[in-house]
Amino acid sequence: MSTHDFESSDRTETETAPEGTAAETADRLEQAEARADLLAEENRRLRAQNARARRSKYRRTALGLVAIGLCAVAGGVIFPESREILLALGATGLFGGLLTYYLTPGQFVAAEVGERVYAAWAANGDSLAAELGLREDRMYVPDERADTARLYVPAGAGVEPPTDADGPVIVERDQRGLLVAPTGATLFEEFQRTLSGELASRPEPLAVQLADGLVEGFELADGADPDVDAAAGRITVGITDSAFGAVDRFDHPIASFLAVGLAVGLDRPITLEVDAGDDRADWLVTCRFEPDAAEEDGTDEDEPTGEDLEFDDDE
């Protein structure tokens, strides 16, 4: 065999090797794409199955209400002496069943998804405050231009919070800090829209309203137990099973909602502190404010005092 034959053989092997490697790479890419498509399809199937399961739960409840309503209506026909009560019960069951069936939510957002979205905001807020050299104080200040409050992170101690600054960064020496819209602002707006009565303006009933909104309205926690000391200007809410993880992070939705609601309802700045809880609660959210004269005296300003009462001298 000549030298020319060896050179031709080497060139052939060299030329075919890259072609074989490229073909194998293409096969692996096709397999990876196929697996990705299968996983995506499986995720879509699981999400659809989960949504169907949730919808079926609501619809079973609706069918149960309709069944109760029909039984009550039938009972009203059979038992004339109780007809009014049974017909009213039947109408309520039928109406509730129809509402439950047709108002079944079609899209659900897992709490884990919301928590991850919030985690990015918390990390950015902490980083920004650290970069600006701000304190760890968190103050929620009523916004005079809107029925809400804003989060103020001061640079110095004992600083009066701004009331009409634009933000987000305040550069004035006596009020330097960060002034941003908190996560609890939009939650509080929604809470006000769903509130059946007026928003309370005294610490005790206002704390109860906000705690009920957290648990019953937004389901951000399994438990919220308020402890109010109006004379000392303190409201502490014990939080159990937060849906958004640790509550001591920057502008957490639970703490932010409570602070915004108190700032708007009491119409004064709120200083927020969050500590780890004890055996009764996972987290303790403490909101401090400057009490007014009535709160310091432990009286309700709507109740008449001795000076306001007039007596008839003839009696």
From TrEMBL:
Residues 31-289 form the DUF7982 domain. Residues 1-14 have a biased composition (Basic and acidic residues). The chain crosses the membrane at residues 62-79. Residues 292-315 have a biased composition (Acidic residues). Keywords: Membrane, Transmembrane, Transmembrane helix. Pfam families: DUF7982. This is DUF7982 domain-containing protein.
